[in-house]
Every structure is written in structure tokens, then in C-alpha cells.
Amino acid sequence: MDEIDLLEMGSYTELQGGNILIPKGYSSILEPMTKNIAPDKMLTGDPVKKIIWNSDQHSPSDDIGDESEDSDQTVIEDMSKSSGSGKTVNDGSSKSVDTPHKPKKKYVEVQCGSGKKLYANHVICTIPLGVLKEEAANIFDPPLPSYKMESLERLLFGTVDKIFLEYERPFLNSDVTEIMLLWETPSSPEPMEDSWYKKIYSFAKVTETLLLGWVSGKEAEYMETLAMDEVAATCTKILRKFLKDPCVPEPLTCVCTSWKKQPFTKGSYTAIGVGASQSDIESLAQPLYRNVHDKKPTLLFAGEHTHNQFYSTAHGAYLSGRIAAQRLTDADETRESNIECTGSADLHAWIQGIQLEG
Ligand SMILES: Cc1cc2nc3c(=O)[nH]c(=O)nc-3n(C[C@H](O)[C@H](O)[C@H](O)COP(=O)(O)OP(=O)(O)OC[C@H]3O[C@@H](n4cnc5c(N)ncnc54)[C@H](O)[C@@H]3O)c2cc1C
């Protein structure tokens, strides 16, 4: 809590309507959204290493012919540097082009870990804040403007982890739904190894034989360094202490998330650190133009860290993606116009459109 800006606490907006449980996890949201996209038009498992977004900086030989703002070539893949067979990705209505190739004139070049290169007129970057904080300086060429780099520095990407404990048999009364844990404040600072578990604020019953613990902050990051059986043993000690029952069984399995350790998240979600503000989120959301006369931005940003009210949420991520896409699809969009934050009415339509299979 010491790292969170108190003045900015109110900037986060709670979406009305309560929580909904998505039965099969986020894949049941992605599936209806992606089912109309041909699999060969999606590239997975190949991280972006570089985004060269100002082709004016390329050598003149890279500029091949003219290109209008309305080019039908959405994304073109150059397999010449990768081991796979050549293929073309475009928007479905356009012609296929043999590889290797580049789109005409102005383009963004996206280089992937495999060596594959993709060329596009516009790129919406949804790399999470945790990854951007560590890698933005290496990813973007030319570098991001300093106002964005400073906002990346100021904003926090905190860690929240889950601890799942699975038991052979139920051991809690059936009317118990959650065990809340409250510890006395220590008189002097305690070493992390002796105190991390005090940040587990509850164990909630998911089923009669499955408990879910939540842990956050530096303590969560520390937990990610521990072996699962060590976490399980500590949780058992806590449960025995709080329930005053030495017979609380050891769990059969203990599984913990490790959002901080994961190279493609490096944390869980955005928080406004001391000295940061909502305007840092707005700075991160600002699209970048290749030059002052362009009607549409070249490099856009989306993801939960770019929504100034719903940051740190899935709906914030969704809405920010819509806003970025609308900037490109709105024919009348000019760089001066200010796209309004899509509101919760839009979210309602989104949720209605998702077939939540039980
Ligand atoms: C424990 C926990 C509980 C949560 N509970 C809720 C909740 O109840 N309600 C809610 O609304 N939100 C919740 N959230 C937050 C929500 O999950 C996130 O805010 C949301 O997923 C963010 O979406 P995003 O698209 O911005 O980022 P992500 O979902 O992180 O997507 C970013 C993607 O970019 C990929 N990526 C990273 N680096 C690269 C790279 N170099 N090249 C290519 N791809 C890359 C990642 O693999 C990932 O697929 C929770 C999060 C956590 C961790």
C-alpha cells in the first residue's frame, strides 16, 4: 500500500453490475471473437521483439512505390528470414502476394522472435505494462517519446497471485464460504520469509474440496520463488492456526499462479504508484503518428494499462482495443478529434454477444 498513490485511488471506476464468473475462463470470451478469423491469419507463440514504426527512417531502397491510406494490405508476412514455408496474411479481400515482399512505401515492420517479419500500415500494440516497463526501450524503433517512457516508469504493474489447495475430502463446515485472515501488526519489521503469508487475505471455498487463497504485492513475488510443497505446508499451518484445528489435512495438490515470473506478463495489473496519475495512463494510450500530416496514427496502444477508468480489468482491455481500432476504421477520424471512452452500454452488448457455455 505504501507504493500506491492515495490521491489517485478514486480514479479507478468500478463497473456496475457485479462480477460474473466466466465458466471456461477467458478462452470462452476469445473464442466467439476469433471464430471469424482464419487460423492462418493469426500468429501465436512468436513474441514481438522489435516494432520499427517509422519507415521514413529506412533506407530509400525500402520505399517501393506509393501507398494510400486505404491500402487493402492489412498485414503482410515475410517468411524469408524464418524456417517456415512462405505465406501471406492479408485482410481477406486483398490479393495474395508472393514472399519475400514488403508493402508499398510507408509501413511498420514487426520483427518476431523466430526471425519472421510482418509489415503493416498500422500496428495496435497490446503488450502488457509489465513487459513494456522492462522492454519498451528495446522494442520500439524509433524509441517511444520521452513522455511515454516517463509514464511507463511512474505507473506500477503490481502482482496478485492465486493459491489453489485441493483436498481429498471436505473438512470445513458446509456453511463456511471463506476464511478471512487478520494478523496483528508486528512491533518490528519481519523478514519476508517469516511474514509473506500474512499477505494472504483469505481462503475462499471454490468447491467443498478446493480452496482459493489470494496473495498480493512483494509477498506474492516472494511466494513465486518458493516450491509448491513449501507453500502448501505454510497454508496448512495457517489454516490449523486460524481454525484452531490441528487435524486440518495437508492438501493433495497445491498450485500457485506466478504472474510476476511469467515473461509475457511480468505482473498482474496496473496500479497508480506514488507520484503517478491518471494522465500517465492517458499518455500511454496516445497513438503515435509517423508525421504531422498523416490522417491516421501509425502506432496505437491498447490493453488495460491504457484505459483511464477501467485500468487493471478485462473490460478496460476490451474497450481500449475498440477505441484503438475505431481510430483506424473511422473514415472521418482526424487526429484532432477526441474519441470518447466507450461506456458500459457497449460492454453490455459485448457480454450479450458472448455465448457463455456452462
Ligand atoms: C489473479 C488475477 C485476477 C484478475 N481478476 C480480474 C477480474 O475479476 N475482473 C477483471 O476485469 N480483470 C481481472 N484481472 C485483470 C485482467 O485479467 C487483465 O486486466 C486483462 O487480462 C488485461 O488484458 P490485456 O489484453 O491488457 O493484457 P493481457 O491479457 O496480459 O494480454 C497481453 C498479451 O500480450 C502477450 N505478449 C506479451 N509480450 C508480448 C510480446 N513481446 N509479443 C507478443 N505478445 C506479447 C501476452 O502473452 C498476452 O497474451 C485479473 C488479473 C489477475 C492476474
UniProtKB/TrEMBL annotation:
Keywords: Cytoplasm, FAD, Flavoprotein, Oxidoreductase. Residues 63-72 have a biased composition (Acidic residues). The keyword Magnesium does not apply. Residues 52-105 are annotated as: Disordered. Pfam families: Amino_oxidase. One of its GO terms (cellular component) is cytoplasm. GO terms for molecular function: polyamine oxidase activity. It is found in: Cytoplasm. Its main location: cytoplasm. Its cofactor is FAD. Residues 81-97 have a biased composition (Polar residues). Residues 96-328 form the Amine oxidase domain. InterPro entries: Amino_oxidase, FAD/NAD-bd_sf, Flavin_monoamine_oxidase. Belongs to the flavin monoamine oxidase family. This is (diamondback moth) hypothetical protein. It comes from Plutella xylostella.
